[in-house]
Structures are given as C-alpha cells and as structure tokens.
Amino acid sequence: MSNIKVLKFGGTSVGKPSSMHMVAKIVTETPGPKIVVLSALSGTTNSLVKIGEDLTAGKHADASAEIESLYTHYLQFQDKLVQKDVSKAKAQYVINEHFTFMRSLLKVPFNDNFTKELLAQGELMSTKLFSIYLEEAGFRNAILPALEFMAIDENDEPNMDFIIDNLGTQLRKHPEEELFITQGYICLNADQKIDNLKRGGSDYTASLVGAACYAELVQIWTDIDGMHNNDPRVVSNTRPVAELSFDEASELAYFGAKILHPSSILPAKQYNIPVQLKNTMEPEAYGTMISSQEKNKTIKAIAAKDGITAIKIKSTRMLLAYGFLSRVFDVFEKFKTPIDMITTSEVAVSLTIDNDARLTEILDALEAFGSVTVDPNQSIICMVGNDVVREKGIVKKIFDSLEDIPIRMISYGGSKYNISVLTETQYKKKALIALNKGLFGL
Ligand code: ADP
Ligand code: ASP
Ligand code: MG
Fold this sequence. Notes:
22% strand; binds aspartic acid; Carbamate kinase; single chain; 16 strands; 442 residues; six-stranded antiparallel β-sheet; binds magnesium ion
C-alpha cells in the first residue's frame, strides 16, 4: 500500500467558484501525496448531453444556443474563481479552446464518437480551471490526463493492467509533485477512442485510481454527509450511516443510492482500500466509512432503483423439466442484458431487467418457451445490512410496514446482505416512507 490518498469531488462540490475554493482548502489541508479526481461543474454534463442530442437530431440552432449559454456560464465562473489578470487570461484561454471545439461540431456530420468527445469537455475544463486556481493560490500541482491511463475493454470493463501501468508512468513524470489532479468519468475504450464510465462515473474513476496506485484511502466528497439510511430525495427524515462494509455499500450503490456510481465500490473492495464519503460543505461531519469490516448485523439502509421491467414466462414445459432456466438465461446473455431479480414457481419464472434497450428481441426469443407478460415502470426496493437474512423477525417487520403496498416480487436469501421487493414505481415513495418508520423508527 502506498501513502497516496485519492480525493474525488462531485459536480456540486465544484459547481460554484466559492465551492471550488472550498475544495482547494480541503485538498491543500490534507497531508501527504494525493490525487484529486474532479467531476464537471454541476449541470455541465446534462447540458453536454442535450447539445449531443440536439446535434444528433439536426437541431443545430438549439445546440448552438445551449453552447453559447454554457460559454457565458464558464466566463462568469472563471471571473469569480481567479483574481489575477494572468490567471484570468489562462482560464479564458482554456475555456475558449474547449468552446471552439464544441462550436466546430456544429459544422461537421455528427456521430457517436463526437458525442463521447463532447461529453468529455466538462471534466477536461473543470480540472484545468482548478489547476489554474491552485497555482494562483500558490500551490504546486500537476494534471494527470485521464485519457492517458483510464481505459475500458471491449466489454466496457476497466482494463486494470493498462490503468496500473499507465497511471504509474504518468505519476513518475512528476517526481517532485505531491498534488495531482485528474478527470473523473472520461476514459479510452477498446478502439482507443474517447469514452466514459457512464453517468456518475467519477466515483468509479476515484475507486479505480485508488486501486491502481494501492492508495491508503479514497474519499468521495459530495453534497451530503455520507450514505443515508434511506433515499433523501424521496424521504425527508433520513440520517447518515457511519460504517458500511464493501458488500453493503456495493448493494446500495447498485440498487439506486445515487451518492455512489453502481460499480464504484468493486475496485476498492478488490484491493481492500477504504472509501470514505464526506460532505464538502461540512468537512467536520464524520460521513460514512466503507471498509472490509462487517459491523452490526442489521438493516442499515434502504435504496430504490427505478426503471425496472418485470418479465414473466409461463410454461407447462417448465414443470419437472431441467435445463429450462438455463435456456431462459441464454436469451438474456445473448442480448447482453443483466437480470437483477428472479423468482420461480412450478410453471412460471419472473425476472427483472433495468435495461430494456433489447426488450423486443428478448421477448421474441422468449415467446418460444411459453406465454410472456411484461410489466414496465417497476422499482426494486432493496434493504441492506450484514447477515440481514438471519435477523429474527425482520421479514415480519418489513411486511408489516409494507402492508398497504402491492408487492410484485420478493427476493430473500439470494445474498446475505439484502432483501428486495419489487413494486410499481407509483408506490415507491409510500413504501420508502413506511419502511423508514417500520425499520428505523424515523
Ligand atoms: P456528486 O455530484 O457529488 O457526484 P451526486 O448527486 O451524484 O453527487 O450524489 C449525491 C446525492 O445522492 C445526494 O445529494 C442525494 O440526493 C443522493 N442520494 C441518493 N441516495 C442517497 C443515500 N442513500 N445517501 C446519501 N445520498 C443519497
Ligand atoms: N460529470 C459526469 C456526470 O455528470 C460524471 C460525474 O459527475 O460523476 O455524470
Ligand atoms: Mg455522483
């Protein structure tokens, strides 16, 4: 293990000049060598997505208007970020360079590669602007270009060997530095083209960077004081959870706790690097510590994942037949669509997917097995804690809380960390509030 720390700051943490100043304070007061991973300024990636969609749809006037309004935002941002003329000139140069590229997209036939390049502009700008501010404030720093070391393979999985080798090469270029800055979210794909780790991917970058340099700690700095026991966007009285194990945090992230990218805990778990969740606006708050330690065998938090489609395949051929499920799973494998939940009875199997991009092809293939029904607009509600399935009376508590909610599926015992139920998204809020009361007394 090295003594490097990785500190990741999300969009809201760098969204205003005053917040970026706060980030600089946190970073420069953290002792020892560190790699700072930055997201784009809040709102930027949404805006870039919109520009990409407009360009794809041939709506050039709309794209141009969005580019110009973003440009104005960045000019105002830099004006408050830095004070000295020389810093302002540097910041404006950076902004102009990136907006010249964006404007050039109005004049070329647009394609998917340009979309990815467009989406990368946010992190490329935020890191350069932060570096200029640090320099003005008298702090030496070096930018590690993520596109030189962060890479995914043909299955969109991180290419860990490449990341380790190339991050090492980049770090060795600056033997004198202790403060490094890199872009979250962006990477190269198997075709060596610019790509990204999907929305919210800067958390994933931080964990991958932490793993690749055997960091002693990864900190994810955001706009809330850690992982809360329930979704604070939906339920009003939630509270932070002080300690979570890697497995608990992974389940919560995968099942919808937006504070963490769904895959972001996996590299940290694999390399046993603790991950701390902290609030940029309230640095003294403890936050959440995620580590290999499994404490308190009880439900610690609930998360919900929307956009779930449930599929039921009913077939008398399933009765007493072996190999049936395997043929069903083959269909999902063929169309590269992961299954989240599954329940079976003698003659039917129900399962859920969160990506319906290939639903039509999947349904066509499943018709061969029996009658197929589809329920869109479902949510998985996932209750997470160590050894939760062994907690006495827990199931009664859950179902007492959910007595007024129509439940479509239940998953219990599949993992020792989670109990999940599936319900229509229209009942999600009611269910989360009821569970908050029933399980946490809140
Ligand atoms: P960042 O821009 O820093 O990456 P995100 O918006 O991606 O921030 O993540 C932080 C947000 O995650 C919080 O503001 C909160 O609304 C949301 N969130 C959802 N579920 C949880 C949870 N269980 N605990 C804490 N925050 C959560
Ligand atoms: N800027 C990217 C997004 O908004 C990545 C991130 O913030 O984590 O999705
Ligand atoms: Mg995020």
